[in-house]
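REVIEWER CHECKLIST
Item 1: Sequence provided? yes
Item 2: Single chain? yes
Item 3: Sequence as submitted:
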Amino acid sequence: MRRRTGILAAAAIFGVSLLTVLSPSTALATESVTMWRLYNRWTGEHFYTASATERDGLIAVGWTDEGKGWTAPTSGDPVYRLYNPYVTGGDHHYTLSAVECDSLVAQGWREEGVGWYSAPAKIGVPLYRQYNPYATTGTHNYTTSSQENDHLVSVGWREEGVGWYGISDKIAGKRVVDVDQGIYQTAAITEGGELWVWGFNGHGSVGDGTLTDRHEPVRVMGDVASVSVGFDSVAALKEDGSLWTWGLSQFGELGDGTHHDYRATPVKVLDNVVSVSYGDSHAAAITEDGSLWTWGSADSGALGYKVDADQTVPRRASGITDAVSAFTGSNSTAVITSDGSLWMCGQVGPRANGAESRREEFTRILTDVASVSLGGYDHFAATKTDGSLWMWGGNDHGQVGNGTADDQTTPVNVLNNVASVSLGSFSSAAVTKDGGLFVWGSNSDGQIGGTQEYFVWPTQLMSGVSAVFLETSGYESLALKRDRSLWAWGGTPAASSPAKVLDGVTSFSSTGAITADGSLWMWGENRYGQVGDGSTTSRPAPVRVAGP
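Item 4: Structure as written out by the authors:
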């Protein structure tokens, strides 16, 4: 039997079957749909529909509105809907089983296509199915409530297990595997590839189709491999290699052709993508063939090609054919190619040098490079494959770490045996392979510890460290120790010595940490709800992120 593929919302009103099809554009925008639950007091039938218009029509003719039943995905395993024309008032039945569907059709039931889809069991919310042996219509009931299931069974209904799975509307209870943050938004990926976003939404950057700030996580899409949050926009890379963006497109940074505009729902802008990086006003992506694509603001030359106006759609950067990783700063782009060469464009040196430190096309800076950091205002860091750390750029606070406060126009080796590095606006930090944490540069807010105004040489602050992060806006610094304890210092009010803030941490970002049980903890500025605890109260200490 040939199966239909659309999502259907239908009802039987006194024996009349109605059919409404959810448009593909809606499905692509939200990737989920609310299933409304209604009750026909004349026949005893429970009915489910994704159409608010159809729901309102049924309520107008006497059906009881029982609110939201669950949230369904717009792809996955199909749940078939069937209609029995032989009973008074009609009766609908829903099943995930194609065998059961075919059996009912053979008995005279009318197949009415795919009603909705089931989520995978490992990430889904179960819809419990019960059968009423005493009824001729409304013989089955479906509910996400285990209490309702138990009650119906206790009064004589037959329990028939799980009918299918919906999507959870709550991030609480799910394992968070990755988190990224901008100034106003937070995005997290949970196990199974579900993407959740919250915070400021005035330009649609939450991606839920509204412009209402979200103080708790909202599920935006599934099958997400990675996410990158820019200044007021978000990019998500899906498992199939498609790149989706939404939010503010002030300079064309969404890559969908818009300029001085916004998108409140995700739009696909590129295929075959393996990685993406979002800066404040531009973006860079690498595709499967090793080519680099950039778009957004053209002011600083950070796109890697000469252009007279902002680039509103992805354009391939010439000269880069074997890129393996890309990084974006506020006004620069860096690419490491397969031979270990580091190429940069845009701001590539001290701002004080003016045009001499800007490149409109990619220029090779170093060889044998393993990683690079562009977090500083105008200073840069690259770690070579041998563990040596090389730095250059603005140095008025000693942030380059070469023992002076003079700007450094070319890379200089400042430390060896380095595992990772992080740059603040005017400060720097590195973790060595033996766990030593070294800091240098500006200490205006205690961001590198102690009371000295600044350090011009790398100075050890801690031991037993596995990772470090220097914030570029709030001047708070974080270090994860090998025992999984997270430590913080600096910020407002300034704290000159590291203090432990959380245990059991496996990974962290600027103001968020994931613990071993997969829960997400956040803190800091919260005027737009970006902490995700349901409030707009700033949190000086970590609070666990909960769902709506």
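Item 5: Key structural point noted by reviewer: The longest helix spans residues 52-60.
Item 6: Recommendation: ____
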